[in-house]
Amino acid sequence: MNWYKFYTAVVCFGVLFSIEGFAQKNPLDKVTEDQLKMTLYAKDSAAPAIYLNKHRETYFDYTDKDGFLIINEFTERIKILNKAGLDYATKKISSYKRDESKEFVTGVWGNTYNLENGKIDSKELEKSAIFEREVSEHFDETAFTMPDAKVGSVVEWGYKTVSPF
Known about the structure:
16% of the residues lie in helices and 49% in strands. The chain has helices spanning 2-23, 33-37, and strands spanning 49-63, 67-80, 90-98, 101-102, 104-116, 119-124, 130-134, 139-145, 154-163.
């Protein structure tokens, strides 16, 4: 009887641990104070911004209604080094559409990190700051600008694209 309880507890713990692992939305490490203190990229001193990390995962899903879908999950982290680098705090994502089929963007999230009085301050991207617009007959665009981005900030975001093409 004790082995049964032990086995049940281990299985339950394993299932909960697996669910928690899938719930994480950010595959990147935590932003560090060293990243926020960086003022220059040694390999290119003129760089306005640098990618600290970029992650992409692509997989297929199948539904009876749509058939096979291509799903891409993106996560990016960028250090803004100077005023020209502030352009990197804005992300524009194009989505293709044709006839009744279209790609779409979902699960957009983001954070801006700044060093304030020796502490790391984080500002989350609000859903109301994410905009969608039609660019042309065949393209839509999802766009956002990270809040409180300034020279010295680290910005990061993630999103998922789903495509029937």
